[in-house]
């Protein structure tokens, strides 16, 4: 507790960065995952093949490798020199891009399974009253699919909170990066890792409770 009392500002700063990166990543990963899922369900062989290749490559290679590839491959992009919550986007955006691309490969399969779980009879009924395929997907299929996959999306958020720890290797001041600063300053690593573990655990418990609450409200609204 003495270490936390003396260096709590480092842990709080790192936690703030971890939460921000996780939120942005899950949001972007969900949107991109929706696109990849629709491509995966497409009858067009080229689009379907691209989606399969994307998912295979992103799920089949380590996240840390993807992080370094994106960081060095996109170093020509003039990222905005803006700070949000004390996080420099110029350094953080390459990490967000890599994490979002990786997250989308998992989210896409979750969304695809959610879409396929919706009774096909509802799509046929919607088209029978004159709705287009796009309208059917947007107004009939997707709302039901999202309800079905909500626990899995919440789980992806929880996973992403932990996976953001890899951005420390690019010098992003997340929880583990600041943990390293405290370890160097105190020469006492074990308590620092216990503190970080507890913080990650608390974050995931909060997210899990939030998802459970939202899911219960959705079920009540259905009644």
UniProtKB/TrEMBL annotation:
Where does the record say this protein resides? Cell membrane
| InterPro entries reported in the protein's UniProt record | AA_ABC_transptr_permease_3TM, ArtM/GltK/GlnP/TcyL/YhdX-like, MetI-like, MetI-like_sf
| Principal cellular location given in the protein's record | membrane
The record's listing under Gene3D superfamilies reads: MetI-like
Which residues are in the ABC transmembrane type-1 domain? Answer: 15-211
Q: Which residues cross the membrane?
A: 20-41, 53-74, 193-211
Keywords (A to Z) from UniProt: Amino-acid transport, Cell membrane, Membrane, Transmembrane, Transmembrane helix, Transport
The way this protein sits in the membrane is described as: Multi-pass membrane protein
Do you know which PROSITE patterns this protein is assigned to?
ABC_TM1
Highest taxon above the source species:
Bacteria
What CDD domains does this protein's entry cite?
A: TM_PBP2
Similarity comment = Belongs to the binding-protein-dependent transport system permease family. HisMQ subfamily.
Entries under NCBIfam families matching the protein: HEQRo_perm_3TM (TIGR01726)
Q: Can you say what this protein is called?
A: Amino acid ABC transporter permease
> What species is this protein from?
Yanshouia hominis
């Amino acid at each position: 507790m003495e270490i936390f009392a003396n260096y709590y500002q480092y842990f709080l700063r790192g936690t703030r960065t971890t939460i921000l990166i996780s939120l942005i990543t899950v949001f972007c990963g969900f949107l991109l995952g929706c696109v990849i899922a629709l491509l995966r369900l497409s009858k067009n062989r080229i689009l379907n093949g691209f989606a399969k290749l994307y998912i295979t490559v992103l799920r089949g290679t380590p996240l840390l490798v993807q992080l370094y590839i994106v960081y060095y491959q996109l170093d020509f992009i003039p990222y905005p020199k803006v700070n949000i919550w004390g996080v420099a986007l110029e350094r953080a955006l390459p990490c967000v891009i890599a994490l979002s691309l990786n997250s989308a490969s998992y989210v896409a399969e979750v969304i695809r399974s959610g879409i396929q779980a919706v009774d096909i009879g509802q799509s046929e009924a919607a088209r029978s009253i004159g709705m287009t395929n796009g309208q059917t997907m947007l107004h009939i299929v997707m709302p039901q699919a999202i309800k079905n996959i909500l626990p899995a999306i919440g789980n992806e958020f929880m996973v992403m909170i932990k996976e953001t720890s890899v951005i420390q290797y690019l010098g992003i001041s997340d929880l583990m990066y600041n943990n390293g600063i405290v370890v160097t300053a105190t020469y006492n690593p074990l308590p620092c890792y216990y503190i970080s573990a507890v913080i990650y655990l608390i974050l995931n418990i909060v997210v899990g409770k939030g998802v459970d609450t939202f899911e219960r409200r959705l079920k009540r609204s259905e009644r």
